[in-house]
Write a structure and sequence with these properties.
The complex is a heterodimer of chains A (205) and B (558). Chain A is 35% helix and 22% strand. Chain A has 9 helices and 6 strands; from the N terminus they run βαβββαβααβααααα. Chain A has a 6-stranded mixed beta sheet with strand order 2-3-1-4-5-6, with helices on both faces. Chain B folds into 4 domains: 211 residues, Thiamin diphosphate (ThDP)-binding fold, Pyr/PP domains (Rossmann fold, 3-Layer(aba) Sandwich), CATH 3.40.50.970; 97 residues, 3-Layer(aba) Sandwich (Rossmann fold), CATH 3.40.50; 140 residues, 3-Layer(aba) Sandwich (Rossmann fold); 53 residues, Alpha-Beta Plaits (2-Layer Sandwich), CATH 3.30.70.20. In chain B, β14, α15 and β15 form a beta-alpha-beta unit. In chain B, α3 runs parallel beside α4, α9 runs parallel beside α11 and α15 packs parallel to α16. Classes of the chains: A alpha/beta (205), B alpha/beta (558).
Chain lengths: 205, 558
């Protein structure tokens, strides 16, 4: 089996790396080889964040080759478009549609990426756009939408639900129940998708 | 048990497992800060050094004392003279210098290849290719260092330090330092001792090249005869991904080049290619040894390498023609409520030239604030300003400000201040930029330090106070003699507030002054500017720059 590849992208401040880490931990729990590769960048301020996660019997390069990621988790539409070259034709995109505007967008010098979902669909890709922050309630300000997006793509990955559950609550987080709930919301959403969108589920049906 | 660990965590753990007593490094970027944090373990002492030289020389001192030591350097060039001396003197306790390269230019505009520098400094170079090897190769490098009494360079990239894989963790194994033993012929670097030290260095490199032939760090993987790839570091995994059938010579100890091993490998295959990131270092060495090979004719020198590049260059796959849509770039920008924004606004209003060394380029460097005119290396800003003032004199008096982060000031900027105090004038702003001190870390009092170095005037300002920063700059630029402004206020990361600011639409004249402070919470809307209540932390800077008085403190958020 070749490696399954997932791209996670967004803007610093969003829980991109944290979500990727949980995905990679889940693969480790499931007994797979796994890699997580984060693009380096300055430590301070807001910037784009891009993380590659690969899992399988043996993972070689930690960097996903172009057009070979089955799944893309976009925390922000502009960054999702930037990561699109990594997506395989017909790949699945979980897209948080709330943009984080750049300075030029805020000043009206550049348009907001409003048609990101349509652009991704044209690749072609199967896109599920959500307002992820609104989907799950925040507890004491800690963002939970990463868990919901992870739940949304989880049936497409070669990992059992139990591996995700173990990774979600590993290290005794303060809010295990909220995490599980957010993840379950994502899984529910996947199960409610029309069949053509949800094709390729590893553990479903 | 296997754990998911990044390269940085694996190196930190490796230090504890192989009995390193001292880790000293300059935490110049996130991966390096993570590495130093990961060394926290009983028996390991971690020092955060202000400069690369100090980081390296502390480690050399620990090695002289018979302990194992690891220096963590953002690059080798900042400690080149000390490294050269250490190459000649050799090591007693195991001594490794970890150097982080940045092929993707993610951390700065300048890149240098530590493999090439290690060769110039005549230091053996060990290259791990993933997190597992980060742990194992550190142990191997320490043993190599002790066996051949030499400093060893452990070369990694920024991405490798951030890359996580399952790593087998062992138990920490603290070691006692053997103690100081006198060996003046090796440790006193005077010209009388030079010829013997130079001869010993050459002899050692020859022995290491011979050792490399049998070393487990260098591995021949024979598969197909058609193509043999010589590679090292992370490129190994890209080769395995793109060319699973190719034979591979993986060089973990890449310098000195084990020529015999390379020659044997090239005889066993029909065609030879070198796959390496950055400069054609291995390729040049192979060519110099009379081995013909492919290399940078198909692979890029710039940027990070991936399996795709290897496939396009060597498997005959054509690079797909892509009509990549032009996407809006996302340059890094300061967070809402960043206290430094007010200081940069004050510098902008002062209409001065600014040289700067900042720990972060987020605020003040890029548009819309963009006040920095020259930014080079750590500690450079005061010297750049001094040099410009030396030739322009009165033409720039009161019109040039040097801005240094606390880290750059302690790195070397302070030495320029001492020098400038004898002769010159000028205004230096020291900014509490970068990471806050970790528990147990002590930093000097910047005000006392500036006075002791001979600054004629020293004052403190609150960096988030626009009016205070403007007044301080105005007065210090007009005053004679060198003056120092210490700008206080660190990153209030994660700050949230209950009552965000809001725009009173009837008063807003859409002049755009608030937009130009570059706050992520402020955007242009149809009738007036708009403050995003979710993003705003109510720092109040926008209200201070609004001449129409259209920005008010909002109501309590529900």
């Amino acid at each position: 089996m070749s490696a399954a590849s997932v791209i996670l992208c967004g803007v610093s401040g969003q829980p991109v790396v944290e979500t990727a880490r949980i995905l990679a931990e889940a693969a480790l729990v499931a007994g797979l080889d796994v890699s997580l590769s984060e693009a380096p960048g300055p430590s301070c301020g807001r910037r784009g964040v891009l993380v590659h996660v690969r899992m399988g019997q043996e993972v070689r390069s930690a960097v996903v080759p172009e057009r070979s990621a089955e799944v893309l988790i976009g925390f922000e539409p502009l960054e999702a478009l930037r990561a699109a070259p990594f997506l395989a034709a017909g790949g699945f995109v979980a897209l948080n549609e709330q943009p984080v505007p750049t300075w030029r967008m805020r000043a009206g010098l550049a348009p907001l990426p409003r048609d990101a979902a349509a652009q991704l669909e044209a690749l072609p890709a199967r896109v599920v756009g959500v307002r992820a922050e609104a989907m799950v309630r925040r507890v004491d300000g800690a963002p939970l939408h990463g868990f919901a997006l992870l739940g949304l793509v989880s049936p497409l990955l070669p990992l059992p639900r139990a591996a995700f559950e173990a990774a979600l609550t590993a290290g005794a987080p303060p809010d295990p129940e909220a995490r599980r709930h957010a993840f379950a919301r994502g899984v529910q959403l996947f199960e409610s998708l029309p069949r053509w969108l949800a094709a390729g589920a590893a553990h479903g049906e | 048990m296997k754990r998911l660990a990044t390269g940085a965590e694996a190196v930190g753990r490796g230090a504890a497992e192989s009995g390193v007593s001292l880790v000293s490094g300059r935490p110049a970027s996130t991966p390096l800060a993570q590495l130093l944090a990961a060394t926290a373990c009983e028996g390991v002492r971690t020092e955060r050094a202000p400069s690369e030289r100090i980081a390296l020389l502390s480690a050399v001192g620990a090695s002289l004392a018979g302990a194992r030591a690891l220096a963590v350097l953002p690059g080798l060039e900042g400690a080149a003279d000390a490294l050269r001396a250490a190459a000649a003197a050799g090591a007693t306790g195991g001594l490794v210098a970890l150097a982080v390269d940045d092929p993707g230019l993610a951390l700065g505009a300048v890149r240098s290849d530590s493999r090439a520098l290690a060769r110039a400094l005549e230091l053996p170079c060990v290259e791990p290719s993933d997190a597992r090897e980060c742990l194992a190769y550190l142990a191997a490098a320490l043993e190599l260092s002790e066996r051949w009494s030499t400093l060893v360079v452990l070369r990694v990239t920024a991405r490798l330090l951030l890359e996580a894989r399952p790593v087998e963790f062992g138990a920490p194994a603290p070691r006692r330092a053997a103690g100081l033993r006198r060996d003046r012929a090796r440790r006193v670097l005077v010209s009388e001792h030079g010829p013997r030290l130079a001869a010993r260095l050459q002899e050692r490199l020859g022995q290491l090249a011979a050792e490399g032939v049998d070393s487990p760090l260098n591995r021949v993987e024979l598969r197909s005869r058609a193509l043999g790839v010589v590679t090292s570091g992370t490129s190994y995994h890209h080769v395995r991904e793109a060319l699973p059938e190719a034979s591979v010579l993986k060089l973990g100890l890449s310098f000195p080049l084990p020529s015999e091993l390379v020659r044997d490998f090239t005889r066993a295959v029909d065609r030879v290619a070198v796959v390496e990131e950055m400069e054609p270092v291995l390729e040049s060495e192979l060519r110099a040894a009379g081995i013909s090979c492919r290399g940078k004719d198909g692979l890029p020198r710039a940027g990070e390498l991936s399996a795709d590049h290897v496939a396009w260059a060597l498997s005959g796959l054509a690079r797909p023609a892509r009509a990549a849509p032009a996407l809006e770039p996302r340059p890094p920008e300061a967070c809402p409520g960043c206290p430094h924004r007010a200081l940069f606004q004050a510098l902008k209003r002062a209409h001065v030239g600014v040289t700067a060394d900042l720990a972060s380029a987020a605020a003040g460097v890029l548009p819309p604030q963009a006040v920095v005119d020259a930014s080079f290396a750590p500690g450079a800003a005061p010297a750049l300003a001094l040099g410009a003032a030396a030739v322009l004199g009165a033409r720039v008096r009161g019109r040039l400000v040097a801005l240094v982060s606390e880290g750059s000031f302690l790195h070397s900027g302070a030495l320029t201040l001492a020098h400038a105090a004898e002769t010159g004038e000028g205004t230096l702003v020291v900014l509490e930029d970068g990471a806050a001190p970790v528990a147990g870390e002590r930093r000097p009092d910047l005000v006392q330090l500036a006075r002791a170095l001979g600054a004629a005037r020293v004052r403190e300002v609150e960096v988030a106070d626009l009016a205070g920063c403007e007044a301080a700059l105005r007065e210090e630029l007009a005053a004679p003699g060198p003056s120092v402004v210490v700008a206080r206020g660190r990153c209030p990361s994660g700050a949230r507030c209950a009552s965000p600011s809001r725009v009173v639409a009837e008063r807003c004249n859409r002049c755009g002054a608030c937009l130009r402070i570059g706050c992520p919470a402020i955007s242009e809307d149809v009738v007036a500017m708009l403050i995003d209540a979710q993003t705003c932390v109510a720092c109040g800077l926008c209200a201070q720059v609004c001449r129409a008085g259209a920005i008010a403190r909002g109501e309590e958020r529900a």
